[in-house]
Structures are given as structure tokens and as C-alpha cells.
Write a structure and sequence with these properties.
Blueprint: H1 3-16, H2 23-30, H3 34-46, E1 50-54, E2 58-63, H4 74-88, H5 93-109, H6 112-120, H7 139-146, E3 149-156, E4 162-174, E5 179-185, E6 190-195, E7 199-208, H8 213-227, H9 235-241, E8 246-247
Antiparallel strand pairs: 1-2, 3-4, 3-7, 4-5, 5-6, 7-8
């Protein structure tokens, strides 16, 4: 790990680990010696980080130069914490971890008084029926949404019948009990919602539908507002989304991951 990356990692660890955090724990987390940690702490202090503590006792990050101070009202703090707690209960491990990291960053930017208020805020979200956790990693599906890359899915319906679809993935929806992929189905030439726990296999095809994702989402939302709960694509929508996929060039080269 490059030293700059390690310094940012140290700041992140001091935001998230119970304080004071010892040099031994920091060394373990970053896989360097304690002597290197002492040098890194000195470098962070020289860069403006207010870090209380010393070798043998542990360290407390009192002011983080990487994050500007923020100010929120009590109700704003509670709203943020409830939202982040809900994300941690999303059934999506990657989002849950990101929410935990974001929570640590938000609290680190608050003045001391507001940090105390955050510690006392109600920010737990309880569910009697937890969302089903999909068996597969969502990272591939999420990346395909962001990068506007078509997906080939093997999908099982409620009766257990399996079909193969090529879809243009738009976004992951966090429904009450399940996670759902909203996508344009090339087979049906219409919008479809795919329960992620029923996706048996998924792979990126290497075909791009960039830059249409935002316009497709707007079209879908506008149709939902104008057409009730079940929005069917119009003929104009079908013409807009039919075809037009661009295949990415093969840049893997001989022996590449391909």
C-alpha cells in the first residue's frame, strides 16, 4: 500500500474504530510496523490533523483535515442517522458497509456538541421481516447499472421456470422485503422488474447503452406518474430503446482476462 493511501486509511480507521485506538491495532489493520504508524501519525499531525494521544496509550482523532466541519440541527442529525441505519439494513452488504463508512465521516465532521447529540440520537431501524439477502454478489449488477452495460440474466420465475434475458439495467430498487433490478428487457421490449434473489446467473455482455440510462429512468418515472402503478412502454419508448447497443472493443490482449 502506497504511503498516501495508508495515511487516508489511517484517518478512516480512526474515524470508525472505538477510540482511543492503539498503534498496534492500526499496524495490524494496515499491515505495517508500529514504528511506521508512529511516523504516519507524525505526518498526519504535520498536515493539520488534530490527533490526541501518544505511543502506549492510543490515539483519538479530534479534527480531520480531510473533512470540512459541518453543522446540522438535531432533527437533521436524526434524519441522517435514520437514513444511514436503513441503508445498513438494506440486505445489500456493499451498501451496508458504505453506509457505515459514511456515518463515521458525517459524525467526524460535526462539532463536539453535535457529536454528543449524534451519540444520543435514535438511529436504529427495526424490521420484523428482514429483506432477503441475495445469494449472489450485487457488485456486478450495480457496476453494470452505473457503467450502462447490458446484462445477460438467467432468471427463475415464481413457478421455478428459468429463462434467459438480455436486459439494460437501470437501477436496483430496495423494496420492503426484496431487492429488485429495474431493467429494459430486450426480449419483451418493455420494462421488467427482476427479483435479485431469483437471478440464477448474471454476466455483462460488453454491450453499452450509454448514454441512455438517465433518459430511460426519466421516461420510466414520467410514465409511472402518468399511467398509474403499472407503466407499460409506449411505441415511442420502444423505438427509442430498441437496438443501438455498442459493443466494447476487446482490450484484454493475448492471455488477458477477456
Amino acid at each position: 500500500m502506497a504511503r498516501t493511501d495508508r495515511l487516508f486509511r489511517l484517518l478512516h480507521l480512526m474515524r470508525t474504530l472505538p477510540q482511543p485506538v492503539t498503534a498496534a491495532r492500526l499496524a495490524q489493520e494496515t499491515e505495517v510496523s508500529e514504528r511506521a504508524i508512529y511516523r504516519d501519525i507524525a505526518a498526519l499531525r504535520a498536515a493539520g490533523a488534530r490527533i490526541d494521544g501518544e505511543a502506549g496509550y492510543g490515539y483519538v482523532l479530534e479534527e480531520d483535515p480531510a473533512l470540512p466541519p459541518q453543522s446540522f440541527t438535531r432533527i437533521e442529525i436524526e434524519a441522517l442517522l435514520i437514513g444511514l441505519a436503513e441503508a445498513q439494513n438494506s440486505g445489500d452488504g456493499e451498501i451496508a458497509e458504505a453506509a457505515q463508512n459514511a456515518l463515521a465521516k458525517v459524525i467526524a465532521t460535526l462539532p463536539e456538541r453535535q457529536q454528543r447529540e449524534a451519540a444520543h440520537a435514535v438511529h436504529h431501524v427495526f424490521r420484523y421481516d428482514r429483506r432477503q439477502v441475495p445469494a449472489r454478489d450485487l457488485a456486478l449488477i450495480r457496476a453494470a447499472c452505473w457503467e450502462e452495460d447490458a446484462l445477460r440474466l438467467s432468471y427463475r420465475d415464481e413457478a421455478g421456470a428459468e429463462t434467459e434475458r438480455v436486459v439494460l439495467p437501470l437501477t436496483i430498487l430496495y423494496a420492503e422485503k426484496v431487492l429488485v433490478l429495474l431493467a429494459w428487457c430486450q426480449l419483451r421490449q418493455d420494462w421488467r422488474s427482476f427479483r435479485i434473489d431469483r437471478i440464477a446467473a448474471a454476466e455483462r455482455t460488453g454491450e453499452s447503452f450509454r448514454p441512455r440510462r438517465v433518459s430511460m429512468l426519466r421516461d420510466y418515472v414520467a410514465g409511472m406518474k402518468g399511467g398509474g402503478d403499472r407503466f407499460r412502454a409506449t411505441s415511442a419508448s420502444r423505438r427509442r430503446f430498441r437496438g443501438g447497443l455498442r459493443r466494447f472493443p476487446d482490450i484484454s490482449g493475448p492471455g488477458g482476462a477477456g
